[in-house]
Recover the amino acids of this structure.
């Protein structure tokens, strides 16, 4: 549900956006779109002996493994950043306006022909020609509805503008914008965060001492791994350039203990890391289970192996 301030200033824009967005989905030039913000897996476990889970390559005569219950591994990379800045609202608005020629909507890939930004929201429009018709679409980011901001990189995308942002919007689909450089994407993220905070938005930021997306175990995942559903949490994706990536964590890893204490939810992990940092420790041991597979009689067989990671502790950090 949109806040009253957004209705007061932009109810008309929201309505137009819905109409144009429907047209865009049906008619806009297509491109490979991400199913979710995901990162590439790290290449090895902390011991170096067990490879991180990867999408298994098809082999002749070998039945593919079943992986529907596990977080999918994508080629898209999500980078760890807090988008910190000391910008004022006016500076943030100006920064976004200056980026007009360095932004395209993810799927359409067409430069914005119109960009309207003020402290309450961003509204962008792009147009293209089909035959004798000129069509257009737009997107709106209401700053009081921003729920997360992710810095994305698309290394396998066969297009220019391989960097970008994924901006979560409460009760709506996220907005995805591509830029030609990392610097442009980070400046856009900083500006949106300044304006979102000024509007009172509840923006979720990653824990910079770890740097991964964590979820509760599903019943099926716990059963497959042979543990209780309350016996751990699972990694959905790992941020690039994060302590978790440097420690060797990968998507689909299950975390069961941190510093010898059981981990049943993400706050248990963050508390253990923060407590270790407060005690002056430079690292912490984190126990878990890694999902892998072996080929047995032309069948992929899931195996789950205990692993222990050593996480270096950043003394500055602790954001949740």
């Amino acid at each position: 549900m949109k806040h009253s301030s957004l209705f007061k200033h932009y109810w008309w824009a929201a309505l137009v956006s819905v109409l144009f967005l429907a047209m865009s989905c049906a008619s806009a030039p297509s491109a490979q779109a991400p199913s979710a913000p995901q990162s590439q897996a790290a290449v090895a476990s902390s011991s170096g002996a067990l490879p991180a889970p990867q999408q298994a390559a098809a082999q002749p005569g070998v039945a593919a493994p079943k992986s529907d219950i596990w977080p999918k591994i994508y080629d898209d990379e999500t980078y760890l950043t807090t988008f910190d800045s000391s910008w004022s609202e006016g500076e943030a608005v100006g920064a976004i306006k200056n980026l007009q020629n360095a932004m395209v909507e993810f799927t359409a890939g067409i430069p914005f022909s119109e960009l309207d930004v003020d402290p309450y929201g961003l509204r962008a429009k792009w147009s293209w020609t089909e035959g004798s018709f000129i069509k257009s679409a737009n997107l709106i980011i209401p700053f009081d509805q921003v729920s997360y901001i992710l810095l994305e990189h698309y290394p396998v995308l066969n297009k220019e503008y391989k960097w970008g942002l994924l901006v979560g919007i409460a009760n709506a689909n996220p907005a995805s914008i591509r830029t030609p450089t990392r610097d442009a994407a980070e400046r856009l993220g900083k500006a949106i965060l300044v304006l979102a905070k000024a509007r009172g938005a509840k923006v979720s930021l990653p824990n910079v001492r770890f740097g991964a997306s964590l979820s509760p175990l599903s019943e099926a995942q716990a059963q497959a791994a042979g543990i209780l559903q309350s016996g751990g949490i699972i990694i959905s994706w790992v941020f690039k350039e994060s302590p978790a990536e440097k420690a060797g964590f990968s998507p689909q890893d299950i975390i069961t203990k941190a510093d010898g204490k059981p981990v049943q939810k993400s706050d248990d992990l963050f508390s253990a890391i923060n407590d270790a940092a407060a005690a002056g420790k430079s690292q912490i041991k984190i126990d878990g289970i890694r999902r892998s597979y072996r080929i047995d009689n032309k069948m992929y067989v899931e195996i789950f192996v205990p692993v222990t990671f050593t996480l270096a502790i950043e003394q500055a950090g602790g954001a949740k």
Remarks:
- The longest helix spans residues 4-27.
